[in-house]
């Protein structure tokens, strides 16, 4: 049996008519950049989230950058984020001119360790950028109360947590703003690069929209210098075509995660994910841990089960952050887990046979090699 790591084709085939119609409408109208398809998507996404504003941008990385820039974060400031994430979370902090300050992950949930936050705050700290990695929500009550105490912005990186919930609130609706990526492999994916910002702050929304469109809300009236980060009509209409299915797909991911966890819960040497209490994890990734990660990954590959590692090098251990002068001992958990984590195939279209097969292969590995 083959179990690919992602399977974008089967999702396309399941809603082929919707997608094909959406694409051909845009082409017929040549509504390639901006226009009503983008506005319609912004409106539907904001409604689905119960927020006042959704600003579509070119990709998820820009969405983080634009928010920080429009909050006035820049040179001389510090922004705190987590040691294990995709580089966009930290790269965008540097792009604003601010300094990145990393915090280790919590050993159970793999998100920013809120217990270590306070010790990283200085007079220069402007914001905290928690990442709801893998679909797992960060401990938002604690993060928000620390932020309030020190007068800091909280910007939620929701690139991996579409429709995740913390105490009934959706990811991206708790801090000042939430940033989303619609990269094809994300839980809600376009057919190219795409992203958006959500916020209830009308002034911030207006400035983000302006900045992402060359600093102009009206043609040729540039009130500031900005950047070019627009969503195109094709991506917007594809995303709109997928929205009616997204909650069902999200639920399917949760069911698939449950099936994996039931099959793997008593397998020695394999640690399954722990969903934080009072939250809804949406399993962008289903990540297990094993001391023999590399051998397990090779074994699964030979059996036709494709896996991946998110991420093999924790951010502070990357060459690009050498200038911060950290050692692995500064981030012991992230540094240990980078060698143990393994992301199993995870998507709504995964069949129960595929899950069972992948789990059986893991058990076989443990019996023979562990
Ligand atoms: C994918 C991702 C991003 C960036 O999104 P792009 O659309 O690829 O620019 C940011 N943060 C995290 C955690 C991500 O996984």
Under the CATH scheme, which architecture of the largest domain would be assigned?
Answer: 3-Layer(aba) Sandwich
DSSP strand (E) fraction? 5-15%
CATH-assigned fold name of the largest domain: Aspartate Aminotransferase, domain 2
Alpha plus pi helix count: 11
Q: Which geometry do the CA atoms define?
A: globular
Total beta strands: 14
Q: What number is the mean pLDDT?
A: 97
Going by helix content, strand content and strand pairing, the class is alpha/beta
Give me the strand/helix succession.
HHHEHEHEEHEEEEEHEEHEEHHEH
CATH superfamily grouping of the largest domain: Type I PLP-dependent aspartate aminotransferase-like (Major domain)
InterPro entries: DegT/StrS_aminotransferase, PyrdxlP-dep_Trfase, PyrdxlP-dep_Trfase_major, PyrdxlP-dep_Trfase_small
Modified residues (N6-(pyridoxal phosphate)lysine): 186
Family: Belongs to the DegT/DnrJ/EryC1 family.
Active site: 186
Task: Characterize the structure shown.
By secondary structure, this protein is an alpha/beta fold. It folds into two domains: 8-103 and 110-244, Aspartate Aminotransferase, domain 2, CATH 3.40.640.10; 245-369, Aspartate Aminotransferase, domain 1 (Alpha-Beta Complex), CATH 3.90.1150. It has helices at residues 8-14, 16-29, 36-49, 60-70, 88-96, 140-150, 202-212, 233-264, 293-302, 332-337, 352-369; strands at 53-57, 78-82, 99-103, 125-128, 153-157, 165-166, 169-170, 177-181, 195-199, 216-218, 221-222, 279-280, 286-289, 341-344. The strands form four sheets. The chain has a seven-stranded mixed β-sheet, with helices on both faces. Strands 7-6-12 form a three-stranded antiparallel β-sheet, with no helix packed on it. β2 (78-82), α5 (88-96) and β3 form a beta-alpha-beta unit. α2 runs antiparallel to α8. It is globular and about 70 Å long. The two termini are 23 Å apart. The chain binds pyridoxal-5'-phosphate. Pyridoxal-5'-phosphate is lined by residues 59-61, 85-86, 88-89, 131, 157, 159-160, 181, 183, 193, 195.
């Amino acid at each position: 049996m083959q179990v690919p790591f992602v399977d974008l084709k089967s999702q396309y085939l399941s809603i082929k008519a919707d997608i094909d119609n959406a694409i051909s409408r845009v082409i017929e109208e040549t509504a390639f950049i901006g226009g009503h398809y983008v506005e319609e998507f912004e409106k539907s996404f904001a409604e689905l989230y119960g927020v006042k504003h959704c600003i579509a941008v070119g990709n998820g990385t820009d969405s983080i950058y634009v928010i920080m820039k429009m909050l006035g974060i820049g040179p001389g400031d510090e922004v705190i984020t987590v040691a294990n994430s995709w580089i966009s979370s930290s790269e965008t902090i540097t792009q604003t001119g601010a300094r990145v300050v990393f915090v280790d992950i919590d050993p159970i949930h793999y998100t920013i360790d809120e217990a270590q936050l306070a010790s990283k705050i200085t007079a220069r700290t402007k914001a905290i950028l928690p990442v709801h990695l893998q679909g797992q929500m960060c401990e938002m009550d604690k993060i928000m109360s620390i932020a309030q105490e020190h007068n800091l912005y909280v910007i939620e990186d929701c690139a991996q947590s579409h429709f995740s919930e913390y105490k009934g609130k959706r990811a991206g609706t708790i801090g000042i703003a939430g940033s989303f990526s619609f990269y094809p492999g994300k839980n809600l994916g376009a057919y190219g690069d795409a992203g958006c910002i959500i916020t209830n702050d009308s002034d911030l929304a207006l400035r983000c929209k302006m900045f992402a469109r060359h600093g102009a809300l009206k043609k040729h009236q540039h009130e500031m210098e900005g950047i070019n980060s627009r969503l195109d009509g094709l991506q917007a209409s594809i995303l709109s075509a997928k929205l009616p299915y997204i909650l069902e797909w999200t639920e399917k991911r949760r069911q698939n995660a449950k099936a994996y966890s039931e099959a793997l819960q008593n397998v020695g040497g394999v640690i399954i994910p722990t969903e934080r209490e009072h939250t809804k994890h949406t399993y962008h990734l289903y990540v297990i841990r094993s001391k023999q990660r590399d051998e397990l990954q090779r074994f699964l590959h030979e059996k036709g089960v494709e896996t991946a590692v998110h991420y093999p090098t924790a951010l502070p251990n990357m060459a690009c952050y050498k200038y911060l002068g950290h050692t692995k001992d500064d981030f012991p958990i992230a540094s240990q887990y980078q060698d143990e984590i393994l992301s199993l195939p995870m998507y709504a279209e995964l069949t129960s046979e595929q899950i069972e097969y992948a789990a059986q292969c893991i058990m076989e590995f443990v019996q023979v090699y562990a």
